[in-house]
Design a protein that fits this description.
Strand order of the largest sheet of chain B: 18-19-20-21-25
CATH class of the domain at 37-152 in chain A: Alpha Beta
Strand content of chain B: over 45%
Distance between the termini of chain B: 11 Å
Shape of chain B: globular
Structural class of chain A: mainly alpha
Protein name (chain A): MIP18 family-like domain-containing protein
Domain MIP18 family-like (chain A): 39-111
Number of helices of chain A: 6
Structural class of chain B: mainly beta
Organism (chain A): Chlorella variabilis
InterPro entries (chain A): FSCA_dom_sf (IPR034904), MIP18 (IPR039796), MIP18-like (IPR002744)
Shape of chain A: globular
GO biological process, one term (chain A): protein maturation
Largest sheet of chain B: 5 strands, antiparallel
Radius of gyration of chain A: 17 Å
CATH architecture of the domain at 37-152 in chain A: 2-Layer Sandwich
Number of strands of chain A: 3
Distance between the termini of chain A: 22 Å
Largest sheet of chain A: 3 strands, mixed
CATH class of chain B: Mainly Beta
Helix content of chain B: under 10%
CATH superfamily of chain B: YVTN repeat-like/Quinoprotein amine dehydrogenase
CATH topology of chain B: Methylamine Dehydrogenase, Chain H
Oligomer: heterodimer
CATH architecture of chain B: 7 Propeller
Number of strands of chain B: 29
CATH superfamily of the domain at 37-152 in chain A: Fe-S cluster assembly (FSCA)
């Protein structure tokens, strides 16, 4: 693989998060639990960074604080921070987050995946790529990748990350970028 | 003065597609509706002849041709052919006779996904556009042969849509580069006669669709910038020049994927906030209008209706029926097509 964009990332501990379980009322056993930012964060925290055998949480690329959820309105906003300002993996990371949430959240949710303001040299361009539904749909339809492999690629451990990349995920993100 | 407010009555929900429906297209006589989408098929819908009230049924499924999403379907003006544009980089031309459909031509050349195909009003030319940033013009030859007459590279990003002016002499394209371009033929070559873009004029994000009014004197565009822009045409120094007439902002909260202008003058929009909105001319209250100072409200548009949750997910396409006033079709990420009847309020 070519030279790493960020050869020495700063690695953080995985935060211990404990969900406070509200006691369920016998009356509304049918009521669905609203989705909150912790739940959405739990879907994305363990996505492996494309370059290193660490998760997006460990690299501070995603944090619980940067996930905003409005369950009633059905909206989710995730801001992510690439480790390096010129990171060419930014689109790929954003796409992985989007795919993971597409598969994990009810279809009624509208997800906005954005770079943290000021975190990237081409912030507007990357944000636009990530929010173009048609480009994303075409990129995900890449015949080189079966649907079954995509979620594995996004959540795989470091050992598999390189293999997944070589399987064409770079083309996948590239077709989103151009 | 002005159109009355009203409501959209849902007539029917057409199910069958197994993936999002990207586009619907009425046949020129309005007897058929074609739909296409992520399941790589086209469905042809017809009225059920006996049914009261009116019901539409799936009359045909066109499959086994495109290997990826079918993004656009467009009928030839004679109604005998249907062109389909696909993410597989090809455009297919289908012919139907006696309920039997077959592919009679495959147009290849685009380097990436084809986003739209549009037949010109006399049926002699086909326009296609793609993520490869180009617009292709194809001439229809005898025997269903298609010859490329021109390839236009003016846009700097994906071209999302192509649409012909009702009189057929102008082709409009709109792009991820935020601009709208108007193409005319000059000495056997197509040239960009005008680009609608820039501060205070053009959209500030991707332009998804463009629609002309029945007379071809106005055009409405919709964008990821959550506005509709209405443009009008004036003759200046012997040339047709388009100007921004009105910007409709503050009505939509998310990307507007589709817009269509009915023969009766109603503008319908389909939005990623799951709503269909209907706009009419001559009311009070759009944001910034360079309305003609005739005082009649011409050039000033008002929202007549907002139908929330028209679909439970994004709406990708809205199309007015060509002859039945007030009949509207919509297509969504919910894999469904819905038929609506515009009901103006009693005045």
């Amino acid at each position: 693989m070519a030279e790493l964009i960020n050869p020495s990332p700063v690695v953080h501990e995985r935060k211990a998060t404990r969900r406070r379980r509200t006691p369920s009322h016998p009356d509304n056993a049918e009521e669905r639990e609203p989705i909150d930012s912790l739940e959405v964060f739990e879907h994305i925290r363990d996505i492996t960074d494309p370059e290193h055998p660490y998760t997006l949480e460990q690299l501070n690329v995603v944090t619980e604080e940067q996930v905003e959820v409005d369950d009633a309105a059905g909206t989710v906003k995730v801001q992510f921070t690439p480790t390096v300002e010129h990171c060419s993996m930014a689109t790929l990371i954003g796409l992985c987050i989007r795919v993971k949430l597409l598969r994990a959240l009810p279809p009624r949710f509208k997800a906005d995946i954005l770079l943290s303001p000021g975190s990237h040299a081409s912030e507007a361009a990357v944000n636009k790529q990530l929010s173009d539904k048609e480009r994303v749909a075409a990129a995900l339809e890449n015949p080189n990748l079966t649907q079954a492999r995509l979620p594995a690629a996004c959540c795989c451990t470091g050992a598999h990350a390189a293999a997944c990349l070589s399987a064409g995920m770079e083309d996948w993100a590239a077709s989103l970028q151009h | 003065m002005g159109g009355p407010a009203g409501s959209l009555e849902e007539l029917q929900c057409l199910t069958g597609h197994t993936d999002r429906v990207w586009q619907v297209s009425w046949s020129p006589s309005g007897d058929m509706l074609a739909s296409c989408g992520g399941d790589r098929t086209v469905r042809i819908w017809r009225r059920d002849p006996g049914a009261q009230p009116e019901r539409w049924l799936c009359a045909a499924i066109l499959d086994d041709t495109h290997t990826r999403t079918i993004r656009s379907a467009c009928w030839s003006p004679c109604g005998r052919y249907l062109a389909t544009a696909s993410f597989d980089r090809t455009t297919a031309v289908w012919q139907h006779a006696g309920g039997v459909w077959e592919v009679v031509a495959m147009l290849e050349g685009h380097e990436s996904e084809v986003k739209e195909v549009a037949w010109n009003p006399n049926g002699g030319l086909l326009a296609t556009c793609s993520r490869d940033k180009s617009v292709w013009l194809w001439e229809v030859q005898p025997g269903q042969e298609y010859e490329v007459v021109d390839v236009k590279h003016g846009h700097s990003q994906d071209v999302k849509t192509v649409r012909w002016h009702p009189q057929g002499e102008v082709l409009v394209s709109a792009s991820y580069d935020d601009s709208i371009k108007l193409w005319v033929e000059e000495d056997d070559e197509w040239v960009c006669a005008q680009t609608l873009a820039g501060p205070g004029v053009g959209h500030t994000s991707t332009v998804w669709e463009v629609a002309f009014d029945a007379a071809g004197q106005r055009m409405v565009s919709c964008s990821d910038d959550c506005t509709l822009r209405v443009w009008s045409c004036r003759k200046e120094a012997g040339q047709q020049r388009w100007h921004l007439l009105s910007t409709l902002s503050g009505y939509h909260d998310r990307t507007i994927f589709s817009v269509d202008w009915s023969r009766q003058g109603l503008i319908a929009s389909g939005c990623a906030d799951n709503a269909i909105r209907i706009f009419g001319e001559g009311g009070a209250g759009d944001d910034s209008s360079a309305a003609e100072p005739s005082g009649s409200g011409v050039g000033s548009f008002a929202m007549l209706c907002k139908r929330e949750q028209a679909h439970p997910l994004d709406i990708n396409c809205v199309r007015w029926h060509p002859t039945d006033p007030g009949l509207l079709a919509s297509a969504g990420d919910d894999c469904c097509i819905k038929l609506w009847r515009w009901r103006p309020d009693a005045c």
